[in-house]
Amino acid sequence: MSKETLLLLPGHMCDTRLFAPQIEFFAKTHNIVVADFSSGDSFEIFVRNALKAAGDGPLNVCGLSMGGMIAGELAAVAPERVKRLALLDTTLLPEVAKRTEARQRRIERASRDGLAVVALEELVPSYLAKGNVEREDLRKVLVDMTVDLGEDVFACQSKAISQRADRREALRSLACPVLVLCGDEDALFSVESHRDIAAIFGDSELVVIPQTGHIATLEAPGAVNSAMAAWLKQPTA
Q1: CA angle, 140 as apex, 157 and 144 as ends, to 5°?
Q2: What are the residues whose beta carbons fall under 8 Å from the beta carbon of 162, sequence distance 6 or more?
Q3: pLDDT of the chain along its 237 residues, tens only?
Q4: Which residues contact 76 (CB under 8 A, 6 or more apart)?
Q5: Three-state secondary structure of 90-113
Q6: Radius of gyration over alpha carbons of the chain, in Å?
Q7: How many CB atoms are closer than 10 A to CB 131?
Q8: Can you tell me whether residue 220 is helix, strand or coil?
Q9: Buried b (16+ CB within 10 A) or exposed e, 39-63
């Protein structure tokens, strides 16, 4: 029997390392594909590249943060490809002007001071729960991913995020199991906002992980793996 495909969509300035615990956990049971968002500057391009990388057939789509936004876009424009959907530490709302302005300031600061400084002083503190913010292993991987992807990708991904569409209405008719998961200390997208996401879908489950911030896959890998394992066992039409 062939393995189902698990398509993982990384967040802003993240890559395969964001899902390292999940890749290890599900490698024996699923065909794992991690999308590469290092080229392109729109969700349309990101979705097209992700679907091309995943190949033919139904997909279990899981995205975190920006990856969750892209997962929503993918499910809205190609619902026939989505067998199950998981949205982690994310939002389906369009960008607000204040955040777009903050993104532009960070692009300018990265050009002036370097991406490592922006990652360490601005991104990491907003990503991690209070109890995790001093964990050197998490700080290092988040900074390393950002620096490795580089300033051009930082600018292009920031543009794509700021120009994303509101796909909530299109997603209301999605007929598949949906996992909505977040950390209870996610400083970017609140637990309440994730409840709103779960309410969009007819078949959804909300999982809130305690003492966890915006990077649940790395901050609480065991809890995330358990929630995803249950989600991947949900029956589909």
Answers
A1: 40
A2: 95, 99, 100, 103
A3: 689 999 999 999 999 999 999 999 999 999 999 999 999 999 999 999 999 999 999 999 999 999 999 999 999 999 999 999 999 999 999 999 999 999 999 999 999 999 999 999 999 999 999 999 999 999 999 999 999 999 999 999 999 999 999 999 999 999 999 999 999 999 999 999 999 999 999 999 999 999 999 999 999 999 999 999 999 999 997
A4: 167, 170, 171, 174
A5: CCCCCCCHHHHHHHHHHHHHHHHH
A6: 16
A7: 12
A8: coil
A9: ebbebeebbebbbeebeeeebbbbb
Q: What are the DSSP calls for 25-55, one per residue?
A: HHTTTEEEEE---SS-SSHHHHHHHHHHHH-
Is residue 81 within 8 Å of 104, Cβ to Cβ? no
The pair of structure tokens assigned to 48 is: 């097209």
Write down the residue that tokens 């091309």 correspond to.
52
